[in-house]
Amino acid sequence: MIHNNCLGIIFANMHDEFLGEMTSRRTTGSVPFGGRYRLIDFALSNLVNSGISTVGVITKHNYASLMDHLGSGRSWDLARKRGGLVMLPPYGRPGTGVYNSRLEALSGAVGFLSTRSEEYVLMTDTNVVANMDFSDVLKYHKDSGADVTLVYKETKMPTESGRYRVLETKKDRVTDILINPKTSENVKLVLGVTVMSRKAVLELCDETNSRGLQDMVRDYFKKNMDSLKIMAYEFKGYAEFVTSQKSYYEANMNLLCDENRENLFIEGSPIYTKVRDDFPASYGIDSKVKNSIVADGCIIEGTVENSILFRGVTVKKGAVVRDCILMQGSEIGENCKIEYAITDKNVVVSEYKAVSGTRDYPIYFAKGKKV
Amino acid sequence: MLRKKECIAMLLAGGQGSRLKVLTENIAKPAIPYGGKYRIIDFPLSNCVNSGIDTVGVLTQYQPLVLNEYIGGGEPWDLDRVGGGVHVLPPYQKTGKSDWYKGTANAIYQNIPFIDRYDPEYVLVLSGDHIYKMDYNSMLTEHKARSADCTIAVMEVPMDEASRFGIMNAKEDGTIYEFEEKPKNPKSNLASMGIYIFSWKKMRKYLIDDENDEKSHKDFGHDIIPAMLNKGEKLIAYRFEGYWKDVGTIDSLWDANMDLINPNVPMNLHDKNWKIYSRNPASPPQYISEKAEIEDCMISDGSKVYGKVNFSVIYTNVTIEEGAVVTDSIVMPGAVIKKDAVVEYAIIGENAVVSEKSKIGGRPENYLDKEWGVCVVGPDAVLEKGTVLEPAGMIGKEEN
User: Fold this and answer.
1) Residue A290 domain boundaries
2) Model ipTM?
3) Fewer Cβ atoms within 10 A, N terminus or C terminus of chain A?
4) pLDDT computed for residue B303 by the predictor
5) How far is B286 from chain A (nearest CA, A)?
6) Are the CB atoms for A121 and A233 separated by under 8 Å?
């Protein structure tokens, strides 16, 4: 734990296209989740809790909210002199513009990668919510003598739309990587965590530039399946995929189950997030709250059931909130009734409104919208 | 020499707070949890930064470990500054005479070298025992406008309670002509709040004179203020109107928490322009279960409620199990109220465990003929199953 000889790379913009309006003005990494977090908090906390204290965050566009969230990295204990948090926004390259693929994105970070001295690089996306000990992954990578380690979870093939990668293996060695295979069987679903040596990553960046490689899986892993030792590491803990608005809704709602929360919020490996200095939540004299997650700074005077309330949400008298996700600063007016809805930050629903979606199609209100 | 500061604050945080009994056995009073997610010291520290004071010396002596760790580098209050910020100042060894802090004035006296480093015009003296929101800057403006040597914050208290306070007798224009500590027959109802602004040059002189006076108690109220009045210095009273509470006793600590859920009390933590900052633990949001019943409460992040909670303040990371009933109580960080336990009119200390079927405290109306009071279960106390604690009772960690 003291020093893992590994640095972290987070791809904050990957998967933006699947989350619709929610990512129209933010990165996937800065999508609010679970009452007081952003998706990137899970990747960052996992890295820090695993003793990895140098983390580069690769972004592409819409990263203002991400920068605001991360600040100096203090909340994750990443405001360090040696290492710490390093933002890697795209730099304009004459003629080519910003990157279009994961490999181009990684190549953009060559400057950062080549000045570091760590032996290994752990790369992760932000669309998987899990509490994962990366030091186990690293140990596996070293012990197995792998060139590449991919982390997977054994699970049913998701039915939600998205881009899923599935491993085929022979004694833990990856033999093929499939994209969205049609099957109802259990599959080895890739969790977007990859370990390689820093040297290999730098060589890959060179090759990306000289040979115009695009897709990491297609142009690198699959092409070199025989010469590269690609190993599969099974993560046995709790993980949620956020690959669409629907799965975003479900993943949040799954936190209402005690067991899931216990497996995500593990004592000794906390999930850190930006501190907002809210006051504790107030529950008024006529409030009625059941089976809900509530964050500090909420003022509840109405009824709330089966819902996730982010920090600073107000539910006024007589209002009924059921099966909803109300993001930071949302305000539900007196005597409103709102069901199966996702309100983005600072949405205001004025009094006596009735809004209802369905479990399969929760209604989404964009940031700052007044209803 | 550091960059000159106009005003720095010295926060007296060394007191034991012995009237809080088991609650301050292992921590200094300013480190006592308050209001769900705060500690008492968050209030003066937040007031300082909100008032534009960026240099604060915190004088510690009694049980400083929790307090030191809590203050840390000062970043939660934005007090990790270049040339200033928050400094913890315990007594230290010197060539010649070294000693513990022997009184409030002596504590500041021993830190004259610290204050001199900033060469301030004014020094604000605060205590770490009070819950209030106050703009020290407007007090300083008054101090400067009146060319005072010392300005003392005062507030009106009911006349029949005035004999419990240090009372300032002042003229119409606020000039103080007499100070009486807990007078039997008070002449005024202006109580000192223990908040002073001194012009540093004057204060420095009086601190040195006081130190050389062998009969002195080395206390601001008892010695420094009377000495300045005797010498004809200009002392003025700065009237404060608003919420202010000394949380020096079990009852007042309980009251001050209950005030937060009383809509008629003007203590507003929701004010975005005067935030109270605190060191936040990395806890998940709170979870309220299907079977929970909650009415008129304040609950903090990391808590899980499966039972019934009314008119209570629940701090961070508290668990209230199914069938448990908590009424009119305050439950401090990390405490667990087990299945079917009943807690009424009580303070449950940090990380205490109230085991199954325990019955802690009771309602005043059921004890009309007996002595009644708020119950206390001390920090880290683990109660046996079915423990009964009568009102006004107290259980500490050792007794179990």
Assistant:
1) 282-365
2) 0.91
3) N
4) 98
5) 5
6) no
At residue A95, the pLDDT reads 52
Whole-model pTM: value is 0.93
- Domain identity same for A189 and A228: yes
> Mind telling me how many Å the CA of B280 is from chain A's nearest CA?
7
For residue B38, give the DSSP letter. Answer: E
- Signed CA dihedral, A225, A228, A229, A235: sign only: negative
Q: In this structure, what token pair is assigned to residue B252?
A: 């007042």
Average pLDDT over residues A44-64: 93
Domain boundary among A238, A264, A290: A264
Both A207 and A239 in one domain: the answer is yes
Closest Cα in chain B to A300:
B296
Residues A258 and A286 in one domain: no
* Tens-place pLDDT, residues B171-188: 999 999 999 988 999 999
The residue to which tokens 């629903």 are assigned: A349
Rounded Cα distance between B304 and B67, Å, is 27
Asked if A180 and A253 sit in the same domain, the reply is: yes
Residues A47 and A174 grouped into a single domain: yes
CA distances from B311 to A13, A234, B52, B329 (A): 45, 48, 36, 7
β-strands A299-300, B313-314: how paired? Answer: unpaired
Span B247-283, pLDDT tens digits: 989 999 999 999 999 988 888 888 889 999 999 989 9
Interval B329-357: pLDDT, tens:
999 999 999 999 999 999 999 999 999 99
Closest-CA residue to A1 (of A196, A115, A139, A120): A139
Cβ–Cβ below 8 Å for B277 and A277: yes
| Residue B224 φ/ψ, nearest 5 degrees | -65, -50
Residue A71 inside a domain? The answer is: yes
A196 plus A256 within the same structural domain? yes
Give the pLDDT mean for A30-45. 96
Q: How confident is the model at residue A306 (pLDDT cuts 50, 70, 90)?
A: very high
DSSP, collapsed to helix, strand or coil, labels residue A269 as strand
Tell me which long-range contacts B302-306 makes (C-beta under 8 A, separation of at least 24): none
C-alpha–C-alpha distance, residues A135 and A52, integer Å: 9
Establish if A150 belongs to a structural domain.
yes
Nearest CA among A60, A103, A106 for reference residue A217: A103
Domain-terminating residue out of A210, A237, A264 = A264
Q: How many domains does chain A have?
A: 2
Which CATH number does the domain housing residue A317 bear? 2.160.10.10
User: Would residue A270 count as lying in a domain?
Assistant: no
**For B165-291, where are the E strands, in sequence order?**
166-170, 176-181, 190-199, 235-239, 244-246, 286-288
> What pLDDT does A94 receive?
53
Question: How high is the pLDDT of residue A1?
Answer: 46
CB contact under 8 A, B75 and A270: no
In-domain check, residue A55: yes
pLDDT < 50 regions, chain B: 400
Distance CA A214, CA A201 (A): 14
Sequence-distant (≥ 6) Cβ neighbours of residue A143 within 8 angstroms: none
The pLDDT confidence band at residue A92, using thresholds 50, 70 and 90, is low
Contact residues on chain A for B287, CB-CB shorter than 8 A? 256, 258, 261, 292-294
A80 touches chain B (CB under 8 A): no
CA distance A271 to chain B (A): 6
Considering only CB atoms, which chain B residues are within 8 Å of A34? Answer: 284-285
Shared domain check, A343 and A241: no
A77 and A225 fall within a common domain: yes
The H-or-E segment that residue B99 falls in is none
CATH of the domain at A97: 3.90.550.10
A14 Cα to chain B: minimum distance (Å): 26
Which residues in chain A touch residue B285, judged by CB atoms under 8 angstroms apart? 34-36, 293-296, 309
